[in-house]
């Protein structure tokens, strides 16, 4: 049941990524004033960090309807709807123009990182007099200046980018694990671009079985074709990589299916060395490289590599919400009513049923997690899903219960569903839109794109 009880006049939106800006567009269309708080210097700041990655879904599934109407009212022309955009193109050709529209621009505050959200005047333990109170959002600039923002409702669309899952076993960082270490290459390095010299002629370990891992592996294999001494090792927790290989031609997103087919060929030909059932116990620095100590199938393993690309996915930042009364699933860390609909043990991104405001509601009325963050640790998020979420939320905040409850969404099948819990768990650590709408693919030609709806991944902005 919904927790929105009266129309809101203002709503704070955390994050100016695709879902955050779509939320602002829908709020404006409902006569609600949005206050968009973006930690980065501008719209889509987090996407800019993986701007070299190409999405699986064509433009037609990456653009929100309310946002498109707003843009078109100012003469904007949509890109080729059948083309597959890169993250950078998504920002430059869609998000940046949207943020600059005269209707939305006055409501965007860049460089305002939200560090805490609370009900104004009461802490989490206070029940009497809690209902109906506005929300207070405390923000901080990079220079350390604090500002409090007050709004009737909150839509947290801050994503999960920047909150990487650890590489170690047990869901914990392994001894010696350090994202700032010289040997740490990050989750989505620009292997064929700015980072080429770093990887050429060196041994790289890629950890994870999501599509972001596949992006990096394919790029490294391409470098290995022309750069002697380039070695590529791939470590996964599952028994096999079948879950990533996917449905091939049966995938409703041809670009995504092609990615899995190419990965299988690299492993079969030995161009990528696969270590399965691998758990990491320790990282031991060795000069500028590192020795990765762990186990594979119960046997001790030591891998001496120059660098590690950790594509183990992301998790939501819930610390900033400690004063909010949330109703989250204990395992997935998604809203309780949403969790069984998206659990990666049972669902691919194409089998998630339509869901809206009623499934996203929390005990504190008028507060919502939306977009990638609403999926918690599940990597099955699609942009189109987030757009439908915020459409429904905006309708509820405006008091239009009928529109809020009428949710509809057609999503693509991935071609496979894993029945192996170990494989599903390992895949669940991959970048889902993480990154934006489940997963992103790199270096797939636009001609390979087919119908679907709009990985990459998490968007933190």
Can you describe what's shown?
This protein is an alpha/beta fold. It folds into two domains: 10-162 and 315-440, FAD/NAD(P)-binding domain (3-Layer(bba) Sandwich); 169-310, FAD/NAD(P)-binding domain. The chain is 24% helix and 18% strand. It has 13 helices and 17 strands. It has helices at 18-29, 45-48, 65-72, 87-99, 196-199, 211-224, 242-245, 254-268, 339-342, 357-360, 383-397, 401-405, 421-427, and strands at residues 10-14, 33-37, 54-55, 108-109, 113-119, 135-140, 146-151, 153-156, 203-207, 231-235, 273-275, 278-286, 289-296, 299-305, 307-310, 367-369, 440-441. The strands form five sheets. It has a five-stranded parallel β-sheet, covered by helices on one side. Helix 1 (18-29) packs parallel to helix 11 (383-397) and helix 6 (211-224) packs across helix 8 (254-268). It is globular, with a radius of gyration of 21 Å. The two termini are 29 Å apart.
Features:
13 helices, five-stranded parallel beta sheet, FAD/NAD(P)-binding domain, alpha/beta, four-stranded parallel beta sheet, disordered C terminus, about 450 residues, 2 domains
The CATH superfamily name of the largest domain is FAD/NAD(P)-binding domain
Secondary structure: number of strands: 17
Q: Roughly what percent helix?
A: 10-25%
Average of the residue pLDDT scores: 86
Count structural domains.
Answer: 2
CATH domain topology of the largest domain: FAD/NAD(P)-binding domain
CATH class wording of the largest domain: Alpha Beta
Helix run count: 13
How far apart are the first and last residues' alpha carbons, in Å? 29 Å
Unreliable spans are 414-461
Shape: globular
Structural class of the helices, strands and pairings?
alpha/beta
Percent strand: 15-25%
The largest sheet is: 5 strands, parallel
CATH architecture of the largest domain: 3-Layer(bba) Sandwich
**Strand and helix order:** EHEHEHHEEEEEHEHEHHEEEEEHHEHHHE
- Largest sheet, order of strands side by side? 4-2-1-8-16
For the CA atoms, what is the radius of gyration?
A: 21 Å
